[in-house]
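[Automated response] Your request has been received and processed.

Submitted sequence:
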Amino acid sequence: MKTTKELGESCSSILDFLKTQKDIGDAQVFVAANKHTLCRLNYTSHIFSNGIEEPKATQNFGIGLSIVFNDGQYGSGSAESSLSSQGAKEALDKARISAVKDPEFYGLPKPEFGERILRDYHDRELADLSDQEFIRIAWDVLRAGLRAFLEKVEPSDAGLIIGGDVQAICERMAVASFTRLEPETDESTMVMASITAMIESKNAKGSGFFAGKTLSELRESGPQAATEAVNSAFATMSGERIESGEHTVVFGPQAVAELVNNLILRGLTAGNIFAEASPFQEKFLQQIASERLSIYDDGANPKFMGAKGITCEGLPTGKTNLIKDGKFVGMLASHYDYQRLLRDPDGARKLGADPEGHIWTFWPRNGFRFSEGAGRQFSKEPSTAGSNIIITSSKLEPLEKLIGRVKKGVYIGRMWYVYPINGQRAGDFTGTVTADSHIIENGKLSRPLKPNAVRINDNIKSLIMKIIGVSDRLKAVNLWGADEAMYASDLLVEGVRLDSIGGSIE
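Generated structure:
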């Protein structure tokens, strides 16, 4: 894998080459290298299986150019598997071909957005991880799940399936421009385990997950995720259905992360406010959720796995409050989206307040070149994405107390296929309750809920206004394909619309 020193040196030489081109007025050079290692778990007790599939280790590196030409046109181009002048020429040729006049483009980022906070925060051991060591860790994860299973039943009593994956990601990058000649480099590491356990004869399904940033965390917590998945499957055996209607619901961290990532976060970006595609259009500084809910992005905090020192636009990361005590107080923004909302003559109406008077609330701390949760990609244009999304409250209470407040309701531990219907702005959405879920009676988890037998059909604007409790448990959640790291608490919500699907009440 290319070192940050090599990336920085390449960045400087490419910048020198671009300065010799007479048709270029401004330019930014981005070079990156990524390593993504993944082991899939594929164990079936009653069918021959390998248990662990062979690891898939992918590496890439290359050049991404953002060019402003003297005629005012903007273009971008990239070159794969090259850090040389030849690669720079290839990327520049693509930028010339793609160049257009964008009336909403107001220039490339300049070093005027504060000083960098975070440096040297990655796990050096993870950066040097061998395939052999990674396979050993994956086997440790699988064995932990098998031990948890054998502690409860004889192998012949029930068919067990353990699936999922263990992942490690290392990202390195460098960025420089005509206005920032000295390259800024960054290196970050992440580890994840996402495990699903199914006991076929009992129609039971459970999940466990872990997300962190060091190899030592993966060694310790990866096996715990497999144990959690198997124990959850046993806890949800012989699940029952519920009647359709409005229910009091406790959403677990994974379900909360699904709601926030797919429905709320996209509405809290400067780009979607500009495009009038947000459920929270014209609501800035107003109450859009229960006072129990707070959400913020904390990109420069090294204790969270999604931390980054700088964005892919070369700007410092930091903390951005999005919802505070239920009020809409800030937005995620790339430099492009920051500039166009700031200069939009209709921006005050779209936002609900004059953007120029609140620039600190959407400072461009979130311009990244992410690609479905696997590295910083030189071939991608910068776009707005979160780093560490924290879902919490100023009024927290233990989870047991939260559940204890529910006389009759549902605990939803895991959801999937959560997506908006009738457009993002309307707020209407649907999603399926899939595992780790229970019926609540008299303040306790009384009986398991049947997997894939309940669909939530509601409106996110209405739902977050009905939050009446938030737990003091903050758990890292790795969602499939998500660019940001999610840290979620449990939420207690009244009057959630749940519909029984796939059969009648038994």
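Summary generated for your ticket: The longest helix spans residues 215-235. DSSP finds eleven helices and 24 strands in the chain.
If you did not submit this request, please reply to this message.
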